[in-house]
């Protein structure tokens, strides 16, 4: 990365990729930011949540101009392919360049939002860029709980204009986002011994190679959900009276599940029925998703009989609940064409000691719809789960189509690239809604370079788009 332009951005981003920074484990990156500020003689404050705020004064001629806040989050989504050995708590991200793309080997890159951090730090340490007084706000745990934004205290921020650097679309200005809420369900059970094993056989069914992606940005792109692929197959053969030993899939609540698996047991008499029905199901899945999921791999193979299984009534109730649980885009916005209004993500199914845990996340730009779909998810999961709880949720960010900051940002883009940027709202969640609750006077926009596949090992960052976005950010600050 040391040879990439803009060098001041990519050299900082390269350093960031070497620092482990999973959500809720931002100690190292938070300390690195504090040390970075000290090395560059910047005023720096770290709050109790480990959010970091850096400040530098306006350059000559800009002293009387309103200050600007540049904001990004420290944490990254930690996803990897199953065959990749990587410990996100200790290992640096291994990056490589593929034409115009910066990628990581088998893991998420952390461009979301490491590149936003890098651009903010490149700006605040520049010795040549004219700008008003600057604050850089770096928050923790944006990806799994928005903890940093929730815990940001009143009075910490001095500016009245905020540029969020957590968007992933070239040439687009975001002025609004969806709100969200998570749902966690648990089905407690006591394993039972497998009986009459001499007359039975076990199958392992798995799906991998799916694109996955961001549960906000990618939810309307027709991608398969690995959890749904597995549970729909088990539901399709429920008349064969299977017994269930293992079911797992997905990982993070804000990522579409890419891999899932199950081990089930049937009578020896049903062996050929299972294989025939699987081949039919596989053909239907490939027909439905083959044009999108180029690397889809759905497999069935015999395996050793397990010693224990889930109670049969609970296992069948669980599959029924997961089939009924909605997933995907629910509604499009009537106010902003092309914007997903409401969605839900069946994110993960995890086996714990004594219970199975199901995680989902709901998003909507309409508060009442967010709660309606949350209740629909709860009703479905309650078919099998004895415990269903919801997170606190976070508010959306209502678009301000009369934003002065948006107009300056748009004019800067036109000046550089000779055509207008798109002005949109985003279905993903941003921290801006929470900032508005504590600083209701803030005028905000969100921008960023082009990224694809975020929240998955396919994450990639456009190098040329990063060049354009950084030039755009500098031009905007100059005009402010």
Account of the 3D structure:
- The chain has helices at 7-17, 27-39, 111-124, 147-151, 226-236, 271-289, 312-324, 367-381, 404-417, 432-438, 463-479; strands at 43-46, 52-56, 68-73, 95-98, 101-104, 134-139, 161-164, 172-177, 179-188, 192-193, 200-208, 243-249, 260-267, 297-303, 308-309, 328-332, 340-352, 355-364, 387-390, 422-426, 443-446, 451-452, 460-462.
- The chain is an alpha+beta fold.
- The protein folds into two domains: 7-177 and 397-479, Zn peptidases (Aminopeptidase); 190-337, 2-Layer Sandwich (Alpha-Beta Plaits), CATH 3.30.70.
- Helix 1 (7-17) crosses helix 3 (111-124), helix 5 crosses helix 7 (312-324) and helix 9 crosses helix 11.
- It is elongated.
- The model has no long low-confidence stretch (mean pLDDT 96).
Short account of what is shown:
The chain is of the alpha+beta class and 480 residues long. It has helices at 7-17, 27-39, 111-124, 147-151, 226-236, 271-289, 312-324, 367-381, 404-417, 432-438, 463-479, and strands at residues 43-46, 52-56, 68-73, 95-98, 101-104, 134-139, 161-164, 172-177, 179-188, 192-193, 200-208, 243-249, 260-267, 297-303, 308-309, 328-332, 340-352, 355-364, 387-390, 422-426, 443-446, 451-452, 460-462. It has two domains: 7-177 and 397-479, Aminopeptidase; 190-337, Alpha-Beta Plaits.
Present the secondary structure layout.
Elements lengths: L6 H11 L9 H13 L3 E4 L5 E5 L11 E6 L21 E4 L2 E4 L6 H14 L9 E6 L7 H5 L9 E4 L7 E6 L1 E10 L3 E2 L6 E9 L17 H11 L6 E7 L10 E8 L3 H19 L7 E7 L4 E2 L2 H13 L3 E5 L7 E13 L2 E10 L2 H15 L5 E4 L13 H14 L4 E5 L5 H7 L4 E4 L4 E2 L7 E3 H17 L1
Parallel strand pairs: 3-6, 3-7, 7-21, 8-20
Antiparallel strand pairs: 1-2, 2-6, 4-5, 5-23, 9-18, 9-19, 10-15, 11-13, 11-14, 12-13, 16-17, 17-18, 22-23
